Amino acid sequence: MPASDTETIATALNTLKIELPSWGFADTGTRFGKFVQPTAAKTTEEKFADAGQVHLFTGCCPTVALHVLWDVPAGVTAADIDALGKKYGVKAGAINPNVFQDQIYKHGSLCNEQESVRQAALQHLLDSVRIARELGSRDLSLWFADGSNFPGTANIRARKQWMAEGLRKTHAAMAPNQRMLVEYKPFEPAFYHTDIADWGMSLLLARYAGPQARVLVDTGHHYQAQNIEQIVAWLLSEDMLGGFHFNDRRYADDDLTMGSIDPYQLFRIFAEIRFFEFETGKTADIAYMVDQSHNLKNKIEEMIQTVMTAQEIYAKAAIVDFPALARAQNEQRLIDAENILKDAFSTDVRPAIRGWRRAQGLAEDPLAAFRASGYLERVAKERAGRASAGSSYA
Ligand code: RM4
Ligand code: MN
Ligand code: MN
User: Fold this and answer.
1) What is the pLDDT of residues 385-394, one digit of tens each?
2) Which H/E stretch holds residue 180?
3) Which terminus of the chain is more exposed, N or C, with fewer CB under 10 A?
């Protein structure tokens, strides 16, 4: 590999920060049940401890996304969370309100036909804005399970209006340095219509909400065959891409490990971002967050595997020869343009990444180093025999 590529990779990795989901360290399940792991985190403190391990060995995961209901329930204060952050070396990241689990949200939250439920959802969102502000978290990350299951049962236009109003009121409560990220998902848990089903709906709602709102792209929230990198390119060109939830999937919102099924898709997404940065000279202000929860792999090991994959694919995207790509595109040399992407994708960037880790004082192989640390054996003893916590996927 030319020295310039090694340097490009080091510079790219210096800036790549990946946020970990607190819920990725807890036992989660499928619709059919939960297989618990003796080492899975059961408390917010344990989630911080485990996330701290991932950061310790990878050096690039300084923040943890929190789910308000699961991690900051009534009685837990910002000071409590801050103390955990200091103790384990990772800070609170994006704040995720939860307006999908309570019984009152059976027919939706901000889009519920009943005013009292819309009001309760709004109040939770406003509380979440306050919590985010107290924690010094920039991003309020919104995902709504709102939707309906049978044709004719919901007033789709009225619900759109209620969603827009709720987001506008939430946006109005944010401090100037905060952001609102609006996530979309085509189906599940609702199977007829979902109130925010795709990126166009998120984009419109973010624009209604106000200038600090952006779209959040969860890679698992698309129909099969959808061109996600095109969505990324469009949102970048509109300055409306706020963040990612990374995971991989084969069928639906499978929440499998990032890059496990289709690493080339992840590469194409990163390549669009790097191409945008190359052409505009701007740095895309994107929150990279992991949102996955495989319930069979060890959670901490899976997160380390994920981060290593993200770094590897990002490094490949960083060494795309963008000047040559731009020329090939303009001159309509299709094979050359395509091969420029493929060359970067097939380059073995792992030696350069190992070198970067050495320079950072990190172990060359974070997974092996974590395994050798004895952490899992220790927590297996400490955490054995305790009841499973409530956090779960719907
Ligand atoms: C949803 C979505 C949200 C996540 C919940 C738990 O499918 O991806 O981002 O917070 O699951
Ligand atoms: Mn998500
Ligand atoms: Mn999801």
Assistant:
1) 776 555 555 3
2) strand 179-183
3) C
Q: Determine the distance separating the centroid of ligand 1 and the alpha carbon of 346, expressed in angstroms.
A: 32
Closest protein CA for atom 7 of ligand 1: 253
Look at the block and give the residue holding tokens 């973010």.
Answer: 206
Region at 223 (left for phi over 0; alpha for psi -120 to 50; beta for the rest): beta
CA of 77 to the centre of ligand 2 (A): 25
Element (H, E) at 5: helix 3-15
Contacting residues for 102 by C-beta, under 8 A, at least 6 apart:
none
Half-sphere exposure of 162 (CA within 13 A, CB side): 24
What distance in Å separates the CA atoms of residue 245 and residue 270, rounded to the nearest whole number?
A: 13
For a substitution probing ligand 1, which of 218, 221, 247, 292 has the most ligand atoms within 8 Å of its CB? Answer: 218
Q: Which amino acid is at 145?
A: A
Contact 343, 30 (CB under 8 A): no
Q: What is the pTM of this model?
A: 0.97
What is the C-alpha to C-alpha distance for residues 371 and 354, in angstroms, rounded to an integer? Answer: 17
Alpha carbon of 183 to ligand 2 centroid (Å): 7
> Cβ atoms within 10 A of the Cβ of 56, count?
19
Nearest to residue 289, comparing CAs of 255, 312, 320, 315? 255
**Residue 32 CB neighbours (<10 A):** 5
Residue range 1-31, pLDDT digits in tens: 999 999 999 999 999 999 999 999 999 888 7
